[in-house]
Amino acid sequence: MNKKMSLDDQLEHVKHRVSEQIAENMKSYGYPATIGRVIAAIYYAGRALDLDELAEHTGMSKTRMSQVLREMTSYNIAEKEFVKGSRKDHYTVEEDYYQTFITLFTANWREVTIRNKKIEQKIMEELMEIYEDEEATPEIKAEAENLMEDSKASIRYFEWIERIVELFDSQDIFKYVPKDPLDEDKKAYRFKN
Amino acid sequence: MNKKMSLDDQLEHVKHRVSEQIAENMKSYGYPATIGRVIAAIYYAGRALDLDELAEHTGMSKTRMSQVLREMTSYNIAEKEFVKGSRKDHYTVEEDYYQTFITLFTANWREVTIRNKKIEQKIMEELMEIYEDEEATPEIKAEAENLMEDSKASIRYFEWIERIVELFDSQDIFKYVPKDPLDEDKKAYRFKN
DNA sequence: AAGTTTGTACAATTTAAAGTGTATATCGGA
DNA sequence: TCCGATATACACTTTAAATTGTACAAACTT
């Protein structure tokens, strides 16, 4: 049955597999799979696509395309591109894997740190009130103090996450984990082969 | 209404908030929220808990506890602890935030790299067959070559992810992004205050 | 101004994930 | 060997996320 497939169809099949693979990876990143399909469609088209073309390529509704592209532009992994003589919105995508990884990774974690720092602040205030309440027994005060220590430790942890985010966002990560294997490694590799 | 709450209840309320916060964070990590509630319950109990106690603390079914604890032990963020004279399984959890982050983060990404490298290998084989097919036109061959280049680039990217995972797993990340702010920063901070 | 084209709001549907309850296999003690 | 206690398999229900279709508003054309 596969034998009957034309070579063109086989190439299409490979592209489809890659597309699904990227889609699956998006799920692992914590984002909708459809984002991956959109990236693949635009990449293989080799040009900016409009919503109708994307719906066509992904086999999904135009509504969904609208939703997903909005999400993607909000994360800066897609952007509108002006196309002469067309009223439609055309979209291009970030094609650098590494940058896409960094962008999505940092967007997610920034959200986490912001949310948590807010909550920790509220918790701290709440604990302070309890601690300073005139009816607070020594036991109550001790417990409140424990929880405040926890909260402080938690804040330090989220500040660490913030610095991790900064490490990626600034591209400094490539200093410590380069895209290409080190030259020494390359040499060693060559000798072995 | 809040005014009527006893101080003890207020402390409980704070703990509950923290528990929900951790639960929410687990979702952001890409894991079930319940994992966070389990971590909080055991942490606040200050000792290993059994499935019934966990169901009690989280307000969930024992079945769910069984499922979640299995998942947690598989990720090495929970483990069984022997408790004298009890037939029940008691569980403790990793209490170091940083370690939990690293463990979950690396588990997720390791899975991703393994999955992708497998797929890329298959794709490479498929493309090779197409390329070497006697009926392949120059256009077909050129396209297959392009896709092979893509695949190679993709593999290099996942190897980079693997090295990122290794950076965290080996704890080397703390060399570049220390838990505690640097001494210089500390000093600067002191002077400002 | 009337008629098109386009994108998206909104409610409804589908699909996938989380969680439950009953039934059962396994184990340790009498 | 039987009994009670425990964890989990499995099928079912609930909840949340992804996706669609219809309707409409804004912008563009004539």
From TrEMBL, chains A, B:
User: Has UniProt tagged this entry with the keyword Transcription regulation?
Assistant: yes
Alphabetically list the UniProt keywords. Answer: DNA-binding, Transcription, Transcription regulation
Q: Which domain of life is it from?
A: Bacteria
Q: Which GO terms describe its molecular function?
A: DNA binding
The cross-references to InterPro entries, in alphabetical order and at most eight, read: HTH-GbsR_regulator (IPR052362), MJ1563 (IPR026282), WH-like_DNA-bd_sf (IPR036388), WH_DNA-bd_sf (IPR036390)
Gene3D superfamilies registered for this protein in UniProt: Winged helix-like DNA-binding domain superfamily/Winged helix DNA-binding domain
PANTHER family, per the entry: HTH-TYPE TRANSCRIPTIONAL REGULATOR MJ1563-RELATED
Homology family: Belongs to the GbsR family.
UniProt name for this protein = HTH-type transcriptional regulator
Q: Which organism is it from?
A: Halolactibacillus miurensis
Query: Quick one: which gene encodes this?
Result: opcR
